Automatic annotation (TrEMBL):
It comes from the Eukaryota. Coiled coil: none annotated. PANTHER family: PIGGYBAC TRANSPOSABLE ELEMENT-DERIVED PROTEIN 4. Residues 1-15 have a biased composition (Acidic residues). Residues 1-34 are annotated as: Disordered. This is PiggyBac transposable element-derived protein 3. Residues 72-201, 212-344 form the PiggyBac transposable element-derived protein domain. The lineage of its organism: Eukaryota, Metazoa, Spiralia, Lophotrochozoa, Mollusca. Pfam families: DDE_Tnp_1_7 (PF13843). It comes from Biomphalaria pfeifferi (Bloodfluke planorb).
Amino acid sequence: MDSDLDYQPETDVDSSDDKVWELTGSSDDENIPPNSTLNVTQPNVNYGYDVLDTMPEAPASFLPERVPGIQLDQYTNTYATEHGLQKPSVFQSWYELSPDEFYRFCGLIMYAGIVQVPNIERFWSTKSLYNGLWARAFMSHDRFKAIMCFIKVSNPLSEDPNDKLCKVRMLTTYIRMKCIKLYQRHQNVSIDERMVRNKGKQDNGPFGLAYGVVMKLTKSISKQGYRLFFDNFCTSVQLLKDLWFIGIGACGTVLRTRKGFPNAIKDVKNFEKKSKRGDMRWIRDGQLLTVQWRDNKTISLMSTIHDANDSVTAKRRTKTNGQFENLTVNQPTIVHDYNKYMGC
């Protein structure tokens, strides 16, 4: 009786075991050394589960550089071990933080940001007013405080002592790179002094702190036609000219005491005596335009992206003879654009 198990190989197939192909010379496979010989044999075909299979050894033992999985729990455990004795009241009940417990901790942090209570302790309160809060179901209050005490978002063994942000550098770098990847800037961008780390004394180079910060922040947008806006904390003749050199147009309010400010328009009091609201004056030095516009007071701006002749109209409310009235005045486009894009 014929059976599916009574299989015989076809006789016209060359199944000899001694047929060998030799490959010599260079290879495109980077895992094969050049000028080596690769012997390829035809193996026997085996049928069924009873034929013994001799499995070769693994090419390498699994020894990753770090423990697989989330790393922040490992950093926290390392930090707690090294600094626990400095906080004995917390460390005496400390035990290693697991990945699952770290996820629960992060969940509670996000929950606390959504549900507002007077203080963090109320999430574990047993009073009827807070009885509906479910933090107790996931972690005790003492354990939450212990993790908060030792939480670490950087590797304590590789922190750079010269980096003042070393404790959060990994996290800020990760967030920054994600933001860069997920968002493309529009043409008009601005820099505010709130972004500057420190106004204290430090080595800021020959052109000062603001100059160094702006040049560092704009490295990724050079030669792309961006237009940058900033206030008088940053604006200087040197900065605008150097930004122009790397393909970035710039505009900002400027102090009359800045080095390089045109001497011919430093006398604001005389200008205000002879001008009315909406009047302006300007000086161009190559690509650099300096404009003064009379509003309630005189405003000075510098730009490498504006034309002195371009203007719009602006509405102003002024008091004349004890009565308020609306005025329509001319406003240079440089002022209009600065108000529009500063802080965007």
